[in-house]
Amino acid sequence: MTFPTSLFASRTKRLLTVLAAGTLACSLAACGSATAAQSATDQTLTVALDGTVKCLDPWQFDEPAVHNVLRQVVESLTALDTKTGKLLPALAESWESNADATAFTFHLKKGVHFSDGEELTAEVVKKNFDQAATYPQGVRSSSYFANYKSTTVVDPQTVTVAFSKPNGSFLNHTASDFLSILSPNTIAQSAEARCAAGVVGTGPYTLGKYTPNQDVTINARKDYDTNPSYAGHTGEAYIKTIVFKLVPESSSRLGLLTSGQAQVVQSIDPQDFQSAEGSGATIVPVTTPGVPLRLQVNVKEAPFTDQSVRQAVSYYLNRDEINTVAFGGKSEPAISLLTKNVSGWIDLSDELKYDPSKADKLLEDAGWSKNSDGIWEKAGKPLSFHITKASPYTLSQKLLELVVQQLNQNGLQVDFADYTGDYSEVTGKHKYSILFANTTDIDADVLRGQVSPVDGGNRSNLDADDDLVAPLSEQNATTDDTARNKILQDVQKEIVERGLQIPVAYLVQFYGLSKGVQGVTYDAESRLNLYDAKLA
Amino acid sequence: MTGYTAGALSLKSPKAIAAARGGMAQYVVQRLLQALFVVWAAFTLSFLLLYALPGNAATQKLQTSSYISQAQYEQLEHYYGLDQPLLTQYVKQLTGILHGDLGISVATGMPVSQLIGNALPQTLGLTLLALLIAITLAFVVSTLATVSRFATVRRICWALPAIGSSIPGFWIGLILLWLFSFSLHIFPGVGDGSFAAMILPAVTLSLRTGSLIAQVLTNSLDKEWHSPYMQTVRTVGYGRLAALFQQALPNASISVMTVIATHIGELLAGTVVVETVFSRNGIGRITQVAVTSQDMAVVQGVVIFTAAVYAGVNLVVDLLYPLVDPRIRNSSRRGRK
């Protein structure tokens, strides 16, 4: 449920300003000192999450809140360095693949245990992958295991995963929370039991008390023994207990942060940045990897059969203004089709620059002219279209309002509304002119999944013999990074130049950290990683 | 009043009393059947409504995921029995419910009875506390509005209920949160199972119901207070307060019973907003989440539960009426003749 927060936002702000001084004085004096006196491991951290945690299984649900909790409980074979895009060891110490990307061998770390005492072995990984490949409830796993043949136990610490067709993206996907490795006892349970009672992993925390729609508590494991290479320390996590509060109201999340009732908050609304920072908190923008929030254009629908119109729409978008207005300037304008934390991205700032006069020229050359109302028209028909909103992102409404405003100002008649009904039918039958969506993925193969008319979702409604089909498949058939990135960069350029996918903004999660919280990091999928977290 | 009616009843012949009891039994059975019908109708209507909505629990679970193949989607639909014809699903759910099985929530994997059972104590505590606050507030405001010696106090108390019932609950909730939790640090800002965390949401929830009770009570108390019989009561020696508490208030309270009964449902509905604003688990929050995720079994479970509570409370009130008000008892007997 959403409430018209803007109605009372100003009131709330006034209240805040009046009372901020008192709050601050309190937090500086007595209120904060209690935690400082305690030993590090006795500390409790309170995290306020946006949304619901309906299910305690990272394989089954997409919601960021679910993964923010479970990322502390489960681990994956690998991890991705968000800065370099390099794959790092986690549960697997090392790995290799064959040249045509059909076989991947992982050497597991020795002496790693699940919190229920089970040991991590090749047999356990095989059980996980065999189930994940065909798991009906898995939101991502069966897609990541496309053309799965088998997993073979080579020795107790070595497995080989084989595919019948190349699957180069599999390696990066082993870092995903969607492919986290679960205890054999969890694997043996029904999907319902896993959801309700929670999964068992190798992570630094175990699931404790869970009250649906209210809170989830996790407790640090004394016997934690993965000690991943990317972490800042080894052994037990610093903070003993973490309570995740599930807080759907954004003004409540802000209040919890400013009043010190929560130290980490997911999704701070940009209109609340000033209030949060006024209380001494820090806003951390974390870009979700994958394809940004974008307009996916159906090229078989008028007026988008005309490439000039698609290009003009892109040039009319002022992405600088979008960042300033929608994100309070805390993100950056979108200049690429893959976010900068996905290996293989390319800077397309020239193609994605704001250039209304170029857009005007494109439309004029294509036979469009402005009528007396200032609306572009051709053969008596105005340039108008509808955008179908299909992004669950909290700020997508605001972003689309801006997009529509910018396009309307330039003589295009545009409106938007949420998609209705079965999403697979909307996309499968191309029941849209433009689909506004975002796709989170840590691997560039997401482009094939979105664009390819042959082995992907074909969101732009291309023909099966389109030029893009071959390179989109080829990039997934090689494990040579240099060769793969070259193909990917050409593909991104072509998609943007043809106006098939028009990036609008990067999807950013704004986390709020109260003063004194240290060591909070974020995994490749922009989820919280609280293993190194400390309260000063 | 009570003394008089008790005397009147004792004057009846044994035959008349037996006849009255027979009529009572018939009345109870009739009301019970009506209550059952209400529950069934609520179940059926909500089933049809949910079915008419585009999408289902499986599509909601997958949302806008582009990683699901059509085959996997169909597999999931089949797993949850969502591919069966409407009538089959309806009959299956209804027979399940008759056997006490509310089914399993697709979204959370929990049995619906467990989900509701876990949330019930929190919501029950919250609504009871809210009701208590509402009734207390209503009685205080109504009494002051009627008998205060100060005209200004009377005027303010006459106006308060109208204001209270027109302020949106979530707005009051957010203001209370900011003031008493985030600024003054007196109460926790989110649900944590403690009594302290229940106070702000209970106050928020009580305002509307309290205002409605106060509106009715003020009117009827005013009527009673200015009735000619109050003169008699005062002249036989009752003091001002005794006349108020022993005569006027009890008589005026009958109308309040109806208001409370009809607003129990509204209190439960109010928890949808209050539990969301105060981040509490409860029947309201479960409903909200279940509706947005089209979690049929959960919505149906909540609907049946709420309808049963509503019908149950109304049944109890209907049965209590004849006991406290002789006019209703007499009219039901007259109707039978």
TrEMBL record, chain A:
<dbReference type="InterPro" id="IPR030678">
    <property type="entry name" value="Peptide/Ni-bd"/>
</dbReference>
<dbReference type="InterPro" id="IPR000914">
    <property type="entry name" value="SBP_5_dom"/>
</dbReference>
<keyword id="KW-0732">Signal</keyword>
<dbReference type="InterPro" id="IPR039424">
    <property type="entry name" value="SBP_5"/>
</dbReference>
<dbReference type="GO" id="GO:0043190">
    <property type="term" value="C:ATP-binding cassette (ABC) transporter complex"/>
</dbReference>
<dbReference type="Pfam" id="PF00496">
    <property type="entry name" value="SBP_bac_5"/>
</dbReference>
<feature type="domain" description="Solute-binding protein family 5">
    <location>
        <begin position="87"/>
        <end position="443"/>
    </location>
</feature>
<feature type="signal peptide">
    <location>
        <begin position="1"/>
        <end position="36"/>
    </location>
</feature>
<dbReference type="GO" id="GO:0042597">
    <property type="term" value="C:periplasmic space"/>
</dbReference>
<dbReference type="GO" id="GO:0015833">
    <property type="term" value="P:peptide transport"/>
</dbReference>
<dbReference type="GO" id="GO:1904680">
    <property type="term" value="F:peptide transmembrane transporter activity"/>
</dbReference>
<protein>
    <submittedName>
        <fullName>Peptide/nickel transport system substrate-binding protein</fullName>
    </submittedName>
</protein>
Automatic annotation (TrEMBL), chain B:
<dbReference type="InterPro" id="IPR045621">
    <property type="entry name" value="BPD_transp_1_N"/>
</dbReference>
<keyword id="KW-0812">Transmembrane</keyword>
<keyword id="KW-1133">Transmembrane helix</keyword>
<feature type="transmembrane region" description="Helical">
    <location>
        <begin position="186"/>
        <end position="207"/>
    </location>
</feature>
<keyword id="KW-0472">Membrane</keyword>
<keyword id="KW-1003">Cell membrane</keyword>
<dbReference type="InterPro" id="IPR035906">
    <property type="entry name" value="MetI-like_sf"/>
</dbReference>
<feature type="transmembrane region" description="Helical">
    <location>
        <begin position="157"/>
        <end position="180"/>
    </location>
</feature>
<feature type="transmembrane region" description="Helical">
    <location>
        <begin position="298"/>
        <end position="324"/>
    </location>
</feature>
<dbReference type="Pfam" id="PF00528">
    <property type="entry name" value="BPD_transp_1"/>
</dbReference>
<feature type="domain" description="ABC transmembrane type-1">
    <location>
        <begin position="120"/>
        <end position="321"/>
    </location>
</feature>
<dbReference type="Pfam" id="PF19300">
    <property type="entry name" value="BPD_transp_1_N"/>
</dbReference>
<keyword id="KW-0813">Transport</keyword>
<feature type="transmembrane region" description="Helical">
    <location>
        <begin position="32"/>
        <end position="53"/>
    </location>
</feature>
<dbReference type="InterPro" id="IPR000515">
    <property type="entry name" value="MetI-like"/>
</dbReference>
<comment type="similarity">
    <text>Belongs to the binding-protein-dependent transport system permease family.</text>
</comment>
<dbReference type="GO" id="GO:0005886">
    <property type="term" value="C:plasma membrane"/>
</dbReference>
<feature type="transmembrane region" description="Helical">
    <location>
        <begin position="124"/>
        <end position="145"/>
    </location>
</feature>
<dbReference type="GO" id="GO:0055085">
    <property type="term" value="P:transmembrane transport"/>
</dbReference>
<protein>
    <submittedName>
        <fullName>Peptide ABC transporter permease</fullName>
    </submittedName>
</protein>
